[in-house]
Automatic annotation (TrEMBL), chain A:
It comes from Plantactinospora alkalitolerans. The keyword Membrane applies. The keyword Transmembrane applies. This is Uncharacterized protein. The chain crosses the membrane at residues 31-49, 82-105, 125-154, 166-184, 196-212, 224-244. It comes from the Bacteria. Keywords: Membrane, Transmembrane, Transmembrane helix.
Automatic annotation (TrEMBL), chain B:
Residues 56-289 form the Solute-binding protein family 3/N-terminal domain. Residues 290-314 are annotated as: Disordered. It comes from Plantactinospora alkalitolerans. This is Transporter substrate-binding domain-containing protein. The lineage of its organism: Bacteria, Bacillati, Actinomycetota, Actinomycetes, Micromonosporales. Keywords: Signal, Transport. Residues 1-29 form the signal peptide. It comes from the Bacteria. Belongs to the bacterial solute-binding protein 3 family. It holds the Pfam family SBP_bac_3.
Length: 353, 314
């Protein structure tokens, strides 16, 4: 990839740095190894966690969970994290790359940081794909952050909109007006609800996007490169924990006709994940742990339940899309708007057992 | 030259500041996404109530009030019953097997709540200051006014409060009701009996015992639904209203809050033009017998809670 104003490479002849084509080829191999390997490892880890650490339960899950379903479930939950990682790496990398280009004789110019090197060798389609996945999967509240990230990743400064001042200002004004039209009602609601972070995350990014492209002084770039790269990698590791612990199978409550010595009403609600169903029995991985084999003729009803993690924190909407939904989720809710929680889910939380 | 250098420095400073602020904002978003909701959730509230973990919800109801709660062919029907079923389903008790309806006489409603005989009462329970010292109320879910019911033969003769003041007309009321005090306030002499049914029986079976009966419009509408050809409701401007609420033990504020929340959800659905449990209950029971289109009154003291379906389009 060629960053604006970065036609010549920062790596001087005679350095030990291999040429760009070779590095791209190596990077491509590493990239596809990561794309295939990381989800596979995560999937196995997830099954282990889902089974509650029990070897036999893990084996039961491995035997019954379809690999395609497992991969699809992983993509559903990990796409947000993966795109956040890519966007952060490319945006920060581009800023550092621009800084190293601007000061070739400084330390950062002679030793471009890791993220800067990644940004330089990453093809533009990968960067664009990262942003596209982020646009579709990030919570709407955080989408404004993509503006400065996009401006940074492509070093897209307002000067590139138009060389002439007036048309440039007109285009910028139009873009800002469009953003304001979209976000002002939400911004006002956030202000009234005293949601300081929401106000900041809606109002600040368009302004930051105008200022963020361009090099930063080497004296700032060096410490920033070291701390931010470490912080991003650490945050990615930290944020990947929920991906491992997110259940693979959907949470259900199964109403089972109990034995005669059971409760007065003769039924029992089992809260857990259905591993498999066949003619003989329904195999349920209970939420509190353990596997139950329920004879098929005793199952009276089965309902799907939401989990605590799906509770909203904000009461804000952008044009009727809840700010904690991603665009994909928001559109999904338009297709199936009613999501009533079934009564059986209320009466049988894990605390009741 | 100096100008260009200064502009370059300002530009560097602005970019640096913007980069740092963007990073801080991104880090803030990372932390924010892990934050727990500030408001309590419906599930948390439910876990604080005394009913959590119970296999059945015991609901105190009336079984002798036509349109509101009445036993017909061994099945309870009525507006109160439908509201009770909606609340029960919202609390996690859906279907007849999860609900135990307990028949309660009017005077037993408060003792039944206090003694723990029932979990909630949905039985034309008016919210009054006196009662609020003994039990909690969620609601109101209905606002009723005072009306007068007359035999069809007197329909054209009794039309105003002034007509009722005529000593020739004998106006019957149930004892100890707010109706009695209201009629007295308007200078209307009344004949007091034990309950409204006695007034209606007196007007039907023993000819000329009473000429009019006054009570809540819902109760009168119920009797009119039983004898539609015999009686007519006269709309008089008494000016008082009664708010019907769901009775909850005073020791269980979480349950009161939850019921108020679910009544409010129904209220919001009705306001947004969609059908709501309240509207369905109203149209199936009271609607055909009351004048004019009614709307659910907004419940009072509704707590702010979060629930799983909050993200759904409004």
């Amino acid at each position: 990839m060629t960053l604006p104003g970065r036609e010549s490479t920062t790596f001087r002849a005679g350095d030990r740095v291999p040429d760009l084509t070779e590095r791209r080829s190596r990077a491509s191999q590493s990239f596809w190894t990561l794309v295939v390997g990381v989800p596979a490892i995560f999937s196995v880890l997830r099954l282990g966690v889902e089974a509650g650490g029990e070897l036999q339960t893990t084996l039961l899950l491995v035997a019954n969970v379809n690999p395609v379903n497992l991969a699809a479930a992983l993509v559903t939950t990990a796409a947000r994290l993966a795109s956040a990682g890519l966007v952060a790496i490319f945006a920060i990398g581009a800023v550092l790359a621009a800084s190293s280009t601007a000061a070739p004789t400084s330390w950062i110019g002679r030793h471009p940081p890791l993220f800067a090197r990644w940004r330089v060798i990453a093809p533009n389609w990968l960067v664009a794909a990262g942003f596209a996945v982020a646009l579709a999967t990030w919570p709407i509240l955080y989408l404004p952050l993509l503006l400065p990230a996009l401006a940074a990743a492509f070093q897209f400064s307002p000067d590139r909109l138009d060389e002439r001042r007036v048309p440039r200002l007109l285009v910028l004004g139009g873009l800002l007006a469009g953003y304001a039209y979209l976000m002002l009602p939400t911004l006002w609601d956030a202000w009234q609800q005293r949601e300081t972070f929401a106000v900041l995350v809606i109002a600040a990014p368009p302004v930051l996007a105008l200022l963020v492209p361009g090099p930063i002084p080497p004296i700032v770039a060096r410490p920033l490169a070291m701390t931010v790269q470490l912080a991003v990698l650490a945050m990615l590791c930290w944020a990947s924990l929920p991906v491992i612990t997110t259940p693979v199978l959907p949470l259900t409550v199964t109403t089972v006709r109990a034995d005669s010595d059971a409760g007065a009403d003769g039924t029992e609600d089992i809260r857990g994940h259905v591993i498999t169903v066949d003619d003989v029995s329904t195999v349920i991985l209970e939420e509190r742990g353990g596997v139950r084999y329920v004879p098929a003729d005793q199952v009276e009803a089965q309902v799907l339940c939401p989990t605590e993690g799906e509770l909203p924190r904000y009461r804000l909407r952008v044009r009727d899309f809840h700010v904690e939904d991603s665009l994909l989720e928001g559109m999904g809710r338009r297709v199936r708007p009613v999501t009533r929680v079934d009564a059986a889910c209320r009466a049988t939380s894990s605390a009741a057992r | 030259m100096i100008n260009a250098s200064l502009r370059g420095r300002v530009r560097l400073l602005a970019t640096t500041t913007a980069v740092v602020l963007t990073l801080l904002l991104a880090a803030g978003a990372g932390c924010d996404s892990q934050r727990e909701p500030d408001l309590p959730s419906v599930q948390e509230k439910l876990e604080q109530t005394h009913i959590f973990g119970q296999s059945k919800l015991r609901i105190g109801v009336a079984t002798y009030e036509p349109l509101m709660g009445v036993l017909e062919n061994n099945k309870l029907v009525g507006f109160d019953i439908d509201i009770a079923r909606y609340i029960a389903a919202s609390l996690g008790y859906e279907g007849e097997s999860a609900i135990q309806f307990v028949h309660l006489a009017t005077e037993d409603r408060i003792p039944a709540l206090q003694s723990g005989q029932v979990d909630i009462v949905v039985s034309s329970f008016s919210i009054t200051e006196e009662r609020q010292k003994l039990v909690s109320f969620a609601g109101p879910y209905f606002v009723t006014t005072q009306e007068v019911m007359v035999p069809v033969a007197l329909k054209s003769k009794i039309r105003t409060i002034e007509d009722l003041r005529n000593p020739n007309y004998r106006v019957c009321v149930g004892g100890g009701s707010t109706t009695e005090a209201e009629l007295e306030k308007h200078g209307i002499k009344t004949l007091v009996v034990k309950n409204v049914r006695d007034c209606v029986d007196g007007m039907r079976n023993r000819k000329n015992l009473y000429d009019a009966v006054s009570s809540d419009e819902t109760i009168l509408a119920g009797f009119r639904s039983m004898y539609p050809t015999e009686f007519e409701i006269v709309d008089l401007p008494f000016g008082t209203s009664e708010q019907l609420g769901v009775g909850v033990p005073i020791s269980d504020p979480a349950l009161r809050d939850l019921i108020a929340y679910f009544l409010h959800q129904s209220y919001l659905a009705g306001r947004s033009g969609k059908t709501s449990p309240w509207l369905t209950a109203y149209h199936q029971n009271l609607g055909p017998w009351l004048d004019g289109e009614r709307e659910q009154p907004p419940p009072l003291n509704v707590p702010e809670l979060v629930d799983f379906d909050d993200k759904a389009p409004v």
